[in-house]
Each structure stands twice: as structure tokens, then as C-alpha cells.
Amino acid sequence: MQRTYENVLGLLRDAGLRPTRQRLALGKLLFDGDNKHVTAEQLFGFAKQADAKVSLATVYNTLHQFKDAGLLREVVVEPGRSYFDTNMENHHHFFDEDRGELIDIPVELVSLLNLPEPPAGTTIQRVDIVVRISSRQGQ
Amino acid sequence: MQRTYENVLGLLRDAGLRPTRQRLALGKLLFDGDNKHVTAEQLFGFAKQADAKVSLATVYNTLHQFKDAGLLREVVVEPGRSYFDTNMENHHHFFDEDRGELIDIPVELVSLLNLPEPPAGTTIQRVDIVVRISSRQGQ
DNA sequence: GTGATTGCAAATCTTTTGCACTAAA
DNA sequence: TTTAGTGCAAAAGATTTGCAATCAC
């Protein structure tokens, strides 16, 4: 089920991305076998902790290259910040509004029926379900 | 069903917002009886067309005051831009990725079953379903 | 070598804020 | 009057871009 290349090198090669030092470092942080949701700023922080020398601009560029190559998916739940999700399977999310944290919901745990037809001339690209949760009471 | 105050003045008064010239102008543009989805920049443009003298900062501030007062709801579907929705009923959205346009989906047209339990200590605030559509082929 | 990639700083875009001015009650 | 609201310009925060230096092949 889960994407587990034994090495990031092969993953980058398969994606047609030149395996540079920076891409390898970021790829190792992202594709370690556990699904992750990171912002650019967070990944930049992780890279620093791991002593990987990568500029913030390169983190942004790399995230988008990974996304375009089909290795990541972008999730927009908050104004002014993007999350990148390493889980490429069809799934949905809880979004914890207090912590700013995403939690995967496997697609099998949700039954979505009876979507209306999309407008003529358009096709459905994706269905995103975001269940907003909070420690606050009520809705 | 639809919120139709005969005048925006009463709507603002009921919301506890002082009916200033700017709020009245923006309120008339927003609450004319048709549901709308606008960005701050768009509303600023409409105000200009209507010869309403309002600054962009005031448009932003007013949108958030209307939101806090329960007159609007914020929808985040694109990185770096917020839409404000005058439809306060429970509903979902198509998002046309080519046009950057939202289309309401009445909640009755969707059956969502079997959501998983939210994590302990949290409650569900809202469930947002965004059906991303495009004139491009496939998904 | 040669073209792709990176880093930095500057630019961009959306949104927020500080503060003197104006207007509603 | 008194206090809330506004406008402007500046600041902030996330993201993108131009370009010379560097790296992968």
C-alpha cells in the first residue's frame, strides 16, 4: 500500500528528477516510510535539525517539483499556508484547528454517495473532505 | 431558506455592527439576495464599479467583521487566497480550478456516511467537501 | 563542458496593523 | 462629545523569481 522505495535515489530517478544533494536530503526526510503533512517552513526546520544545508527557496521549489512529479500532494485548509502530504492514496483529512495539524482518514472509512453531476464540460479531478475539529465545544 | 433582509441596515444592526457608509455599501453588494463567493480583491473591484469609496484595508476588515458576526463564511480552496461565501446554510462546493470559481452544492445532494470518530478530546466543527473540477481531462 | 539546480536577495502577492483623521450615536 | 470605524502607508508572512555560482552527468 505504502510507497516504500528502499532508497530515495531510485524514487527521484523514477520521477525524472536529478538526484541532487538537496533533493536527496529533503526526500529522505519526507519519504521515510511514514506518511507526513508538512509546511515548507516545517520541512526547512527539519532539514536544519538534520544538518542538511538547503535554502528555504529550494525547499519551496523542491516541494513543488515533488508535487508535479506525483510524489506529494498539496492540501489547502488554512488561509495563507500550504501543507504537503506524502500519502498519495485516495484519502481525506481531519484538520485540528487548534494545533494546525492534519490527520489522514482512509477513504474506506467514509461513504460519500450521490454527488451531483459536475457542470457540463468539466470533469471531477478530486474530492477533498476536510473534517474540521477542535478542542472547543460545539460547532 | 435564503437570508433576505429587506435592507442591509437592519442586517447590520441585528449583527451589532454600526451601519457606516462603507459597511452599507459592501453589505448591499454582498447581500442582494443571491448567494455569492468573493475574494477581498473582487469585492474591492465591485465597490469601485459601484462608485463606493472604500479602501482595500476596509474591505478586508469588513469581510472579517461580517464573518465574525455570522453573516459570511470563509472558504479556503486555493493557496494564498480566501473566498467569502454569503450562503450560511450547511452546504458544499464545486471548485473550478480553471476559473477559480466556487459553485454551491446543497447539502441534501450529498450523502456522507460513516465518518470516523474524531480524536479524543476534540469535536467536529464542520465538514467541508470540495469537489475539484476542471475542463482538463481525467483526474 | 553543458545544462540543470541552487542560494541568495529582491520582488510579489495577499493580508494585517499602527495611527491620525472622520463619522456615528 | 465620545468611541467606533476608516484610510493610508507601512509591515508582515508566505511564496516566487532573477541571476550568478555550483553541481550532476
In short:
The first copy, chain A, has helices at about 10-15, 20-30, 40-50, 55-70; strands at about 35-40, 75-80, 80-85, 90-95, 100-105, 110-115, 125-135. The first copy, chain A, is α+β, with helices and mostly antiparallel strands and about 140 residues long.
Task: Give a topology summary.
The structure is a homodimer of 139-residue chains.
Chain A (H helix, E strand, L loop, with lengths): L7 H7 L6 H10 L6 E2 L1 H10 L6 H13 L4 E6 L2 E5 L5 E6 L4 E6 L4 E3 L9 E12 L5
Parallel strand pairs in A: 4-7
Antiparallel strand pairs in A: 1-3, 2-3, 4-5
Chain A binds a DNA duplex (25 and 25 nucleotides) through helix 2 and helix 4.
Mean pLDDT of chain A: 91
CATH architecture identity of the largest domain in chain A? Orthogonal Bundle
Low-confidence region ranges of chain A: 1-5
What's the quaternary structure here? homodimer
Into how many domains do the coordinates of chain A divide?
2
CATH superfamily of the largest domain in chain A: Winged helix-like DNA-binding domain superfamily/Winged helix DNA-binding domain
User: Got a strand count of chain A?
Assistant: 7
Terminal-residue CA separation of chain A:
35 Å
What would your notes on this structure say?
The structure is a homodimer of 139-residue chains. Chain A has 139 residues and is an alpha+beta fold. The first copy, chain A, has four helices and seven strands. Chain A has helices spanning 8-14, 21-30, 40-49, 56-68; strands at 37-38, 73-78, 81-85, 91-96, 101-106, 111-113, 123-134. In chain A, α3 packs across α4. The N and C termini of chain A lie far apart (35 Å). Mean pLDDT of chain A is 91; it is low at 1-5. β6 of chain A pairs antiparallel with β6 (111-113) of chain B. The structure holds a DNA duplex (25 and 25 nucleotides).
